[in-house]
Every structure is written in C-alpha cells, then in structure tokens.
Amino acid sequence: MLFDQKILLAVQKWRRPLLNKLFLFLTYSGTAKAWLAGTAAKKLIPRNRPSEAIFGYARVIESPTCGSFPSSHTAAAVAFYSALQFISHPLASFVGVWALLVSFSRLYLGVHYLTDIIGGAVLGTIIAIIFIWFVFL
C-alpha cells in the first residue's frame, strides 16, 4: 500500500459526525472557481480520486468528477493566504489557519491524497507570486 493511501486510511479512523460537519463547512468555505493552472494540471496528471483507487475506501462526500491532482481548494486557499501575507494584512495569520483547515478538510473528507494537497499548496503559492508580481511590482 502506498504512503498516500496509508495516510488516508489513518485519517479515516478520526471521522466523527461532528467533525464531518465541521470539515464539510470548511471545505465548502474554500470552494472557488478552479484555477486555469489547476485545471490544466488535472488534465496533464490524470490521477484517480482515493475512492476510485482504494478498494472499499469510504468518503464523506461525493467525489468531484475531475482528477485528484492538485487540490484546487487548497490552491485557492493558499493563494489567498499568500497574497494577504505579502501585503502584511492583519488577518493573514487567521486566513493561514483557515487555509490549513480547508486543505486538511479535503484529506479528511476523502477526496484527495496528501500529495494532492501539497501540490495544491505549491500551485497556490505560485499563483499568488504571479498575481503579486503583476499587480504590485
């Protein structure tokens, strides 16, 4: 069994009804239009969702129909946080915690692997850097 799969199966054991509601709220709060770069990456790196790749894996929500890598929710949340951090916004730290929770929610709910989350975070950071470069520099 792969490292990513072991992590998902371990996180699955933490699931509780109240936590399910909390992470559903967090994941929906991080829903944004898919970044063009994220959509392109999903087409270039076709990766099945965990529920399609791990026999008998239970997810909390229905898996999106697009590929798993990278996590667009994570990319959007991290891009938002990174941009606020760059301009030294006073709420950047709070948004950073929110971005971490949104990212973890995708793992907890069973729709992404850890490497999808890491890929989304890298993509979000790159998007923020490009945005900042064009807008502020």
Topology:
Elements: H1 3-12, H2 17-29, H3 36-44, H4 50-53, H5 72-86, H6 92-108, H7 114-136
Low-confidence stretches: none
Number of domains: 1
- Count of alpha/pi helices: 7
Q: What is the CATH architecture descriptor?
A: Up-down Bundle
Mean model confidence by pLDDT: 89
Helix content: 55-70%
Order of helices and strands: HHHHHHH
From the spread of the alpha carbons, the general shape counts as: globular
What CATH first level would be assigned? Mainly Alpha
Structural class, by secondary structure, is mainly alpha
Provide an overview of this structure:
The protein has 7 helices and no strands. With 137 residues, the protein is mostly helical. It has one domain: Phosphatidic acid phosphatase type 2/haloperoxidase (Vanadium-containing Chloroperoxidase, domain 1, Up-down Bundle). It is globular.
Write a concise keyword list for the protein shown above.
mainly alpha; 137 residues; 7 helices; 66% helix; Vanadium-containing Chloroperoxidase, domain 1
Overview in brief:
The chain is an all-alpha fold and 137 residues long. It is built from seven helices and no strands.
